[in-house]
Amino acid sequence: MTTKMKRALSLLFDRNTARALFTREFRLALINRYFHVFSALALIGGIAAALFSEDANATGFFHLQVALYFVSLFALLAGVGSAQAEREEWQLLFTQPLPRPSYVIGKFLALALIFAGVLLLLFLPPLFAGADLSMMGLLYLQTLLLAATFLACGLAAGYFAHDRAQALIVGVSAWLLLLFGVDLVALFAARWSGIQKFPDLWVTLLMLNPLDSFRIEALFALQQIPAEAANKTPLAGWWTAHAGAWFAGIAVVWSAAMMTLASLRMNRWEE
Amino acid sequence: MILAENLTKNYGRKPVLRGISLRATAGEVTLMVGPNGAGKSTTVKLLAGLIRPNAGSARINGFDIVDQTIAAQRSLAYLPQRPSFHPRLTCLEVLRFYARLRGVPLTRCDAMLELTGLNDAARTRTQELSGGMRQRLGIAFLLLADAPVLLLDEPGLSLDPGWRKRLQETLHFESRRGKAVLVTTHLIAEWNNVADRCLLCRDGVIEQELDPSDLLHDFPEIETAVIDDNEDETRIVTAV
Amino acid sequence: MAAVLLWVVAFSCRASVSDAPDGVSQKRPTNAATLQERIDAAAPNDTIRVEPGVHAGALLITKPVNLIGEKGAEIRGNGSGNAITISADNVTLTGLRITGSGLRLSDDDAAVFITANRARIENNVIADSLHGIYLKKVSGTQILNNRIEGKTTLSPSAEPVEKGIGQGSENCDTTLVSNRRGNGIHQWNSERTTIRGNEISETRDGIYFSFTNNCLVEDNLIHHVRYGLHYMYSDNNVFLNNTFTENAAGAAIMFSKELLVRGNRFINNRGHRAYGLIFQSSDRSKLEQNEITSNAVGLSFNQCNDNEITGNRVTQNYIGLRFGSNSGGNRFTQNVFTRNLHPIETGSSDVSGNQWAVNGVGNFWENDLEVDLDHDGINDLPHRELDSFGILRRDFPAVAFLSGSPALKLLRFANERAVIPGMSAIEDPSPLTSRFWKIQAQRSHALLREK
């Protein structure tokens, strides 16, 4: 970590700075119609899961689907939107005595905290209908990590792109690639005998994708185990045995990498 | 005070600043005049820490703007030509954000709104402000932190004459309170009364330092020059 | 005096008769005699009340008697051979706790070992034994409302579920080490058994059928065993409303024909390679209205022909329906396939010889685009269910890490619109819409009103 990054982080945790950034993001979230829609859909989803799910497992499975498709996309869009909405203000923001990485990371943390709150709307209602607390708690934390990862991706796309349209195209393309592209490539690559000789290499491709890591971890939590795959290679065995820790790790690494990229980008930004 | 030495800046291969050196001391309003593309705005952005020089150095209140960016930025306030704020936030929320960021008491936000005549617009979103009101909010933002160095890039273009006059008076007052004020402008005729010094910038260098009080005396046509008209600007500068 | 004596005798006889169930005669126990001695001394069809306390086994019942246990009555075997051996017809055991059989699988040690017809084993608790109830070449046995608990101090079978399929024999697999559990109810070469209302747990297999025909198995609960039902070479049996849950495999039905399996629940059988219901080499049977939920593999078909699979709910399984090789002529209709990670697995098998709709009525598949212009509850578009992994499951098992991937859903969606070459799939020509059952109910209602 460079001296500048260390300084940026120490400034980030300065009370005034943190308060300024968090207050601003909370205020913006409160008046952001995307967050309104997300919150409403999350609440409706949570209540629907509580009312209509046949059993606890069905609730968990529903939340897994919601997290994969809905939370990840919304987090990404929220990141893109948040970064781009302030684009015109950067010339004021970046003359403030605040390192740009602090601003970027502070924004990310504030948005992640907001997501932590909004996701409660999705996860709390099923608890009132008797869903298993530990299962839902675990899924909540995993979903929050997934949201944070895609929030970071969205912010990075937002900071790298020249305008909102470009940011959306880049962000959504990345999301589609991670959601569908990697697995499609993996499925068709698996037919190739050259790849079949190196299953661990193939497994590594999936492990590095946060959506795949999330899916495998959540499936294990819900006991929808792909048992056939569990112990076929040492790496596959390790992954299935440590799916939760791996997902947490890969989510943190992705978030950190995206935030580092975004920070470097903003450090180099000149009007 | 502001001290720049031999600043150069290229955009791609195109040189914009070719070695600008300037000094703006506390207690003075320093004007920077010159035609479009002369490098006035680039110089101010560079001094504000928005961009970095390819060579040369600049100090704000003694802090190097490259190596001690945060300390230097703590000492300055910068008002761009067209200040832009988050469109969804109100005037008060914008000022409070910057006040928190700089550790300024929140009560000062109200004082700034009053100073700029934006009391009634305190809860208006900035996207709903007119160009002039946005400029006034920019002035409130500029003065909020009570920074010892004020940098203004073509200020007051959207302001009506009354508010432009008040801005000049305010800056004059602030300079007399010990602040260093650097203003880039086309409106020489309006600002020469305020300025203590005047720097002529052309082709990325400070070509000459002029005495503001002599400008109109020597070149009375300046007073009638059309603002933002390239030909006239060039003519004035050429005349100078 | 004689009159008084006659009156006393008459009174005591009446009292005895009034205490006995169904008017059968009853012998009161004397403290001096052992239970075996009392059985030996009893007349045919006598009822013997077994007092609370532990009564030493092993018992050998060679005449038709009724043993009725009072609360707290236990018959404890000597840890060798069977706790109770029934070798006479028409014996009844009721209300007893039966424990302490031997533990030798090679000798088929059991808590209750039956080699005679028409035994009735009812309301007993069987524990701490190898096999629970063992039927050997008998007919007409009734096993009702018993609780059979395996000996948990013995290791459960470590055998993979699929291993041992087809090893039907009189004795249990003697290649297993003796330190293994026995079966809850073990039948060999028997017929017309009724097994109803029993709860079986912690045994090796719940109910074991081999060469046993014309039986009724109804309303039993079998959990925490290896196979809930381990069944082979047995025909014309009926399974109704049983629950097989939390086992390594719910039921394995093999090498048999003409069964009726209706209304059973195969749920939460989730061990490694666990199944809800394995159907192998079994023909001309009916699987109706069963619930097959939350299993590793819900329903597995291998070399099965001409079966009717109707109205089953196959949900939340890792693989809903697995097709092995050489299965044809099976007819699937009105089944519900929802929330399975992989609804169908065909591998490399040719499944074209099976029917996915009967009389124009197919099955319900999740997330179908519903186009039903004539409002008959049957989709106007056929449904193609894709087996995304196909032969890769065998060639490259790690591919299972793609389970539940949105990419597979995308492929499934695409395959619905245009067949993706090189990928195996089944086609249901008349898939059901979600309104099918409602429309059926309305029609039935209307018919009833007309009548």
Give a written overview of the molecule:
The complex is a heterotrimer of chains A (271), B (240) and C (451). Chain A is mainly α and 271 residues long. In chain A, α7 crosses α8. Chain B is of the alpha/beta class and 240 residues long. Chain B has two domains: 167 residues, Rossmann fold (3-Layer(aba) Sandwich); 64 residues, no CATH class. Helix content of chain B is 36%, strand content 25%. In chain B, the strands form two sheets. A six-stranded mixed β-sheet of chain B has the order 6-7-8-3-9-10, with helices on both faces. A four-stranded antiparallel β-sheet of chain B has the order 2-1-4-5. Chain B is globular, with a radius of gyration of 17 Å. In chain B, 48% of the residues are buried. The C terminus of chain B is likely disordered. Chain C has 451 residues and is mainly beta. Helix content of chain C is 12%, strand content 33%. Chain C contains five helices and 40 strands. In chain C, β1, α2 and β2 form a beta-alpha-beta unit. Chain C is elongated, with a radius of gyration of 26 Å. Chain C starts with a helix and ends with a helix. Chains in contact: A-B, A-C.
Summarize the structure.
The complex is a heterotrimer of chains A (271), B (240) and C (451). By secondary structure, chain A is an all-alpha fold. Chain A has helices spanning 3-12, 15-30, 33-52, 56-85, 90-93, 100-128, 133-160, 164-189, 193-196, 199-208, 210-221, 227-230, 234-241, 243-268.
Question: Notable features of this structure?
Answer:
heterotrimer; B: 240 residues; alpha/beta; Rossmann fold; 6-stranded mixed β-sheet; 4-stranded antiparallel β-sheet; disordered C terminus; C: 451 residues; mainly beta; Pectate Lyase C-like; 13-stranded parallel β-sheet; disordered N terminus
Bin the helical content of chain A. over 70%
By secondary-structure content and strand pairing, the structural class of chain B works out as alpha/beta
Question: Would you count the extended β strands of chain B for me?
Answer: 10
SSE succession of chain B: EEEHEEHEHHHEHEHEEHH
Shape of chain A: globular
As an assembly, this protein is heterotrimer
